[in-house]
Amino acid sequence: MARAARATPRAGPVESSRIHDVARVAGVSTATVSRALRGLDRVRPETRDRVLAAAAQLDYVPSPHAASLKSGKTRVIGVVVPFLTRWFFANLIDGADQVLRQHGYHLLVFNVGDRREQRTLVLDQQLLAKRVDGVLVLSADLDPAEVALLQSLRLPLVTVGLDLPSYDRVGIDDVAVGDVAMSHLLELGHRRIGYIGGNPAEDVHIATAVNRLAGVRAALGRAGIPDEDLCFQDGDWTVRGTIPVAERMLSGRRRPTAVLAASDEMAIAVLCAARARGLEVPGQLSVMGIDDHEMAFTHDLTTVRQQVREQGQAAATMLLAAFNGRGPGQRREMVLSTELVRRGSTAAIGRRGSRR
Fold first, then answer.
1. Backbone torsions φ then ψ of 256, nearest 5 degrees
2. pLDDT tens readout for residues 88-141
3. Which of 174, 188, 251, 303 has the fewest C-beta atoms under 10 angstroms from its C-beta?
4. What CATH architecture does domain 76-171+308-334 belong to?
5. What pTM was computed for the model?
6. Extents of the domains making up the chain
């Protein structure tokens, strides 16, 4: 006798039936199973452990789609970044993910691109609406259309490294960072100083480029050094892209005795260019960066350290708090500390441009 084909039940009844099985094995209600598996607070630890054990025993994995339909929450956070592969952004994302994953959230990353003339509107209403519970914007200066889109979603939003009015913000004081870095070189006696910063007209780091340059100029102003005495060049925040810039700066007739770069990666490019020209660092050229990149210590690079992963963690924590709701006028801003890290790439200048 032919065996009858087994009918495939619909996803809804299967999901409902299996969650009842987990509830029966754990000795709790289906509502408690749902709360425990979503990581909600209103479940005692011992109860959560029983539910997790029962779910593992039955190989039960809840449907994210079904959970979102029931709760109205997707448990997904949209993360907007200009780059995915660079050290700074990778550490921001990692810090945010550490916090969000502990609370049952996952990340959906939107890479909005590099230079503005190459940008397209990656953020899309259909892609974002009803797919994310909140948004993190990580050091990506957005076009007006992109800002308007995010505002239209009416979702909790936290920024890192830029300031969007009415939204919570995490970051560092980039003006103070530029000031501290330039002041260090001035205190060492340098007066003919090169500065490699970002180009506000082209790249997506507008706020960072503008603010760090403002700090540099503030330090020079206190020292009585006019802007025109600053040997200024635009870099692209990367090692490879900045090497030609550094080579031009070091080949001039009035070569600087010190170079400050707005990021450690650009400072490493200066070190490469100096080595190619046979310049002793710091004997003939002091070099300084900003960030304390993970490779900075391998180059003995003096820098201003910022807490990158911690900024991502703080932004994620702030976003989770925003889900609880706050009234108008309660915008929060967290400014993390920075620290001057003295290493061997800078030294006091002598009469012949060597160490004292």
1. -65, 155
2. 999 999 999 999 998 889 998 887 765 554 455 455 555 565 678 889 998 877
3. 251
4. 3-Layer(aba) Sandwich (3.40)
5. 0.76
6. 15-71, 76-171+308-334, 174-306
